[in-house]
Amino acid sequence: MAKQNLIAGQWISSGEYSDNFNPADPDDVIGQFARGDAEAVDQAVVAAAEAFPSWAAVSPQIRADVLDRAGSLILARSAELGRLLAREEGKTLAEATGEAVRAGQLFKFFAGEALRLTGDSISSIRPGVDVEVLREPLGVVGLITPWNFPIAIPAWKAAPALAFGNTVVMKPADLTPASAHRLAEILQEAGCPPGVFNLVMGPGSVIGSALVGHPDVAAISFTGSESVGRRIAEGCARTRKKLQMEMGGKNPMVVMADADLDVAVPACINGAFFSTGQRCTASSRLIVEEGIYDTFADRMQQAMGELVLGDPLEAETQIGPVASDSQLRGNLGYVELARQEGAEVLGGERLDRPGYFQAPALFLNASNGMRVSREEIFGPCASVIKAQDFDHAVALANDTEFGLSSGICTTSLRHAREFKRRSEAGMVMVNLPTAGVDYHVPFGGRKGSSAGSREQGRYAVEFYTSVKTAYTFAG
Q1: Average pLDDT score over the chain
Q2: By percentage, how much of the chain surpasses pLDDT 90?
């Protein structure tokens, strides 16, 4: 049965539908999903605006209970959700199930945050005057989510938005609507009132543009590419919307000569190639001190040869397919570009099997000035760049228009401390992959990677609420 948009608590039929394919087996059609239009967006925004006053005014315990029930349902069905996610996005079953668990944990965390929303009482400089600083919900929030984490990112946007009293219109990625649709079903089952959470599926050029341009949408939270983010920022500026954006990354992992390679190589393999490199936090630049460059490259090549690529539903698979044919073609174009730019390419070829499978690729003897070292590829490709010493490595790491995540592998406390201080990134890892973060701490970057306040953790309140200062004269 075709899957519909959720508007005002009702599943609304659409005139057009699109097939959702399994990237590991394009003959496997997961389902048909509605393709909404600007009218559907308007209906959803009207429903969310009508539901906002009562949802904002309701006891925080009621909001907490709805989110907690949703989290429990997600956790109870994590195996089912993980299998669906693996089929539609292509990440391994273990990764997909872990992502579903994380979505459940996010809802449970923000169920607690709904009860912990605080303000301040501040002494006035004037006698007889009391000052309170309050946090209030924004109103209707538009959430535009990407295809690479099709249930975790919808969860980490929707849960805080709802916890703090906002109502939501969500537009999931056109490539991966099934996981977000199941999330919408779970929220209804958890008792989310009609109009509080609305789902409108379809292409970003239509649905996203309508959300950004709608006068009754107070804020937009977007995760996706920098090019799309730039257009959304321009649209939000015109309509004076509050905006939060998480975009690309070209994340460095520095490997010092003093590093334990038994730690560094697995961290680099994980960061560069797990989730098929389709993480904004992936380690796409491996910056290696020259004294161990050749040894590191040999160890990486050996470890790459031991990776199991295959059907993401098979338990032994470590690397699944690229998410789509267009993404695969773009990746292969970058592999060829690396050769043209003078890098030695290890791997990177398309695998001779059904689906969109690509072998992980290392670009050896790369420079930081190459396009493959500066542009986000969003696939299993990593440049390996030689650094003369620690200071040179830090300079190379920071020489990018992005600033999401960074890492260093070292046994030196001084190097670790200095790198944490000097790295121009929003998140810094020491002896850990650049990808992989906890759900209860802030997520976000600098430069071209992010705009607005942080996502996740207690810092999410900064985006999803507005601050009001109230004065009372007691006489």
Answers
A1: 97
A2: 98
Q: What is the CATH superfamily name and number for domain 251-430? A: Aldehyde Dehydrogenase; Chain A, domain 2 (3.40.309.10)
pLDDT, mean of residues 40-53: 98
Going by C-beta distance under 8 Å and a sequence separation of 6 or more, which residues neighbour residue 159? 67, 106, 107, 109, 110, 111
- Are the CB atoms for 128 and 177 separated by under 8 Å? no
Question: Has 246 been annotated as catalytic?
Answer: yes
Ramachandran bin of 190, using left for φ above 0, alpha for ψ from -120 to 50, beta for the remaining angles = alpha
- Amino acid identity of residue 178, one-letter, is A
pLDDT of residue 1: 74
Q: Is 129 left (phi over 0), alpha (psi -120 to 50) or beta?
A: beta
Per-residue pLDDT tens for 60-114? 999 999 999 999 999 999 999 999 999 999 999 999 999 999 999 999 999 999 9
Global confidence as pTM? 0.96
Q: Other CB atoms closer than 10 Å to residue 240's CB: what's the count? A: 9
What is the C-alpha separation between 83 and 85, in angstroms, rounded? 5
Q: C-alpha distances in angstroms, 182 versus 189, 312, 347, 371?
A: 10, 20, 37, 39
E strands along 2-139, which residues? 5-7, 10-12, 17-22, 25-34, 120-123, 129-137
Q: Answer yes or no: are the C-beta atoms of 312 and 277 closer than 8 Å.
A: no
CA distance 155 to 133: 28
CA distance 380 to 263: 20
For 312, other C-beta atoms within 10 Å of its C-beta total 27
Where do you find CATH 3.40.309.10 in the chain?
251-430
The residues near 336 (Cβ < 8 Å, ≥ 6 apart) are none
Predicted local distance difference test score (pLDDT) of residue 15: 80
* Active-site choice (236, 280, 381, 409): 280
Note the CATH architecture for domain 5-247+449-473. Answer: 3-Layer(aba) Sandwich (3.40)
pLDDT of residue 270: 98
**458 within 8 A of 113, measured Cβ to Cβ:** yes
Helices (H), 58-90: 60-76, 78-89
Is 344 within 8 Å of 370 (Cβ atoms)? no
> Rounded to whole angstroms, how far apart are CA atoms 105 and 156?
10
The whole-angstrom separation of Cα 7 and Cα 28 is 29
Three-state DSSP class for 18? strand
Degrees, nearest 5: CA angle 39-144-282: 155
pLDDT beyond 90 at 474: no
By CB atoms closer than 10 A (0-12, 13-18, 19+), residue 136 is middle
Catalytic residue among 246, 289, 376, 455: 246
Instruction: Please tell me the distance from the alpha carbon of residue 201 to that of residue 296, in angstroms, as a whole number.
Output: 45
